[in-house]
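Sample entry (367 residues):
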Amino acid sequence: MSQVLEHYKYLHTIPELGFVEHKTAAYISQRLKEAGYDVCEHINNTTGITALYDSGKPGPTLALRADMDALGHIIDGKHCAMHTCGHDAHSSIALTTAEQIMQENIVNKGRIKFIFQPAEELGSGALAMIEGGVIDDVDMIIGLHLRPKDECPKGFASPAMYYSASTTIEVDFIGIPAHGARPHLGINALDAASLAIQAVNSLHLNPALNYSAKATRCICDAGVTNAIPAKAHVCWDLRAPTNEAMDELKAKVLNAIEFAAKSIGATANMLVSKEIPAAVIHDEVTDIIAESIKDVLGEAGLKAPIYTPGGEDFFNYPRERAHIKAGFWGLGVDLVPGLHHPDMHFDTTAMVDGVNISKACIRRVLG
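Predicted structure, serialized as tokens:
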């Protein structure tokens, strides 16, 4: 069994949610230490890990980042953690790459840093690592993600993944309780929530943009069927292709929610609970990744850049440290039926391509 499949076989059996990836981090950290890296654990009081190798010769510091957390699912009525987004594969690829470049003496100048990040799914893992100072010394950073089969099949890879900005807004609508027979004495929080949902659905940006704003959760219950509910909780998911478009969309959504509630005398307590920026990708890094893909998969294996409405908290790194050159690529692994699906699976042998492409990138920058 290859190193990457060995790591994956174990990590896939211990899925852990964001910021509690204790077993995952312990396994990765131990293997990195055995490989000869200077390992830092518990970054910013989290499960985050960095592994550094300094060649001792002048050159840039290149970082490769992998996420570690699993997703939360409800299966047969029970909450559980499952690796349905491929983060166990990302960690396995990065860990194997780290081991093999030491074995093969690939780094001949500068420094290589591996970042194993918690809580990507929560949208706050990258920010925690940034606050912990892990990229203060980094010149270039590269991330990757497995891709669905219909977007990028096995034997192919894309040198640039242009993720969208995503925002989560959570709102508590506050009304006044009353008996169902005397609605004039109350303010129905469910009505306020319904009006706000319709108001948001009526918003528009430039139709040339791929954007959306939709309610994804609504919780409201007075406890009985003949009472006016005084509280309703609604979540909205927003997507936009650029950070500028997201700023416009978010402002319009917050305004629509506030005034929809006010129109019937309710109040809306609004919280922007998660914000993930749109992709910021450097052409130089994309070129390095593209050439590395061709080194491994040939010219025919190079896909065009991919634009996706999905969000990726990796892009907090270049947003918070604008001097860093960032690149993000997609790996074809015949993944079906889709990311975040409880039955998600893929051809695990394709992870070897991920390792070889990662090594080729390091060789081009630090070899």
